[in-house]
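Kindly go through one protein, given below as sequence and tokens. The question is how this chain folds according to its tokens.

***
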Amino acid sequence: MNATISFRLAPPAALVALGLLLGPALAACSDDDVTQVCGNGLVEGTEQCDGAELGGSTCTSIPGGFVGGDLACDSGCTFDTSGCHSTQPTCPNGTIDPAEDCDGANLGGMTCLDVGNYTGGTLACAGDCTWDESGCEAPAGCGNGVIDSTEDCDGANLGGMTCPDVGNYTGGTLACAGDCTWDESGCDYQLSPSEQIAAVRAIPDATGYSLDVEHVTVTYLKPALGNDPAGFTVQADQAGPAIFLRLDPTSLAPSPAPGDDVSFTVVEVTTSQGRREVLTVTGWTLHSSGAPLAPLTQTVTDATDLVSGLSDYEVELITVDATILGDFSSGGAGHLKASIDTDGVAGDPDLQLRLPSGLVATLGLEAGCTVTVTQTPLWRYQSQAQVIAYDPAEVAVSSCPAPQVLGASSTDATTVVIVMSRPVDAASITDPATQVTFTGGLSATDATVSANEITVTTTAQAPGSAYTVTLAGTITDTQGAGVDPAANSAAFLGFGGASSELLCADGADDDGDGFTDCLDIDCATDSACAWESKLYLWELDADQPSTDSTEYVELWNNTGAPIDFATERYFLLFVNGNGEVVYGGAQLTGVLGAGDVYVVGSAAVPNVDLVITPSTNLIQNGPDGLLLLSCNTCGDMASAFPSGYLVTFDPGPPNYVSADGAPAMWVDALAYDTNDSDDPGLMSALDVLAQINEGGGAGSAIHSLQRISPQGWTTALPSPGVSSLQ
């Protein structure tokens, strides 16, 4: 039996509710005011047809040389000629021609059991070459008005079922065929799976819907990371559309996996960051698993409209070759992003690569790297088209700039840490003594690798002596590129000398004991350098290579007891040395345990406790300052110490008065710079006697400032969230 799905002229109510058909008719409209809406049963504007309305056209009346057949209308309101044929069938001629079920005695090997719900009998061919099922035997009981176990229905007894119950229909009249199976020929508008997804994407943000999405493929599981929720994408055709379900996969039973064929009913939808999302579903059903994803994946390297036509690609599965243009910056909590070029889109800052921060580090990605990202959804953040990946297997690195030595520093008398621009292949260091060489008589005895750091064991260093380390080109990154010969060395000072220890007020060893003096006090022996019972500024990283995306301030609780910042209110102020005014900062929150450290910075900073904005260039390089104040009666940060607040120290108490009139007490302060001249006005406003240079040692882009005495600081590799009291 051939079932025919018809498109009726009466507009289905469900599609009207979706806004897919015309609203109230406009009175007295001119021809110029005609609204073209595909799916309303009216041929309008440039439409060739609409539903069952073909405008009087037939297969033989349209171009194509067709001589017969059944013309239809597709979902885009253009002619569907798949039922038309170019050769006039001859019935009967013994050959099953196009549009024929059979021809004479030629049944094509079919039997009653193949064409309907029959148990036997004799199938025949009618004179018009369609099936003659009159000789077929229906199941026992078919026709008695009772729905038996092998029957869908029986006569007028439909069991209360309607068209929407038996298929993806929006209305119409369901009937029962002679073999007690559904006759769906009177049902209206069966949408394809892609049309179902499109209908969901088209509806307004709301809950309370009941929209079926049937037999679509799960294409990607997106894990929860930072502020990004867990979810997954579904798609039915390579050209889309697709949609993101913001649902934890583990909340569904069975949990979805890529390649699953699933159905569900959409209850709630929303728009988030410009992206259409499903929030609630019912009727979750898994039909099968293991479908290949390649047929659903578009290769978009040459596409020119990834940004301009973002809505046409949103969360659809793609593969793309790209070149990373600029430095990575914060892409939201736990993520980094960078602009990319493809063959089709060049120089558009809204085309980006967005990856977990750890994946960027693992792969050693930077500006100039070329990558292939395979079978991931094109993410959307407002107008930005973002190529995403969460598994290293999804990103193949084709090439990157040669690794460079960024800096080196001694961490003890026989250890030097070399910081590289890219992750190093540990296997490429086979002979440290010849591949890592030093001036000044120093030599390497061993070397280990951790990501982009090479830790070298050396012979004994002379305290404070100047050395230069040079790497051989046989040391490579994880992509096999050798060290750049133009940037293969760095200078450092031997561990233990005065210039590698305390960076204090005058930076001098006045008494010649090998210790830099703090304000002419020998911190090695003098009690005036004893730690106080208070909250200290502990570490500052204000300058980093390229875009500063992981700047931070660390504090240390030396009170001997936990600090509850809800009751003991502290404010960390960022002070501009140009005018001594506040340009940023934060009120501390949470609880800090005794002896613990507390990290304030962007979301990309490891071990961060308090996330503040902006995500890049958070802290100025200097000469600038940090000021830590206690103020239990202040309002919030915006009212107490807004941007532009003038920092003026008073011996007091109080030492400062907030913008909302509350007394504030000095707790700690730091004036710093990156190889800049001292700023007496800044030091006076902060009540400090020294301005500390983060640019010492291997340089401010490599090192942070770390406290090693009440008045003393040193430069070392950044260690946010790790206490480093020496």
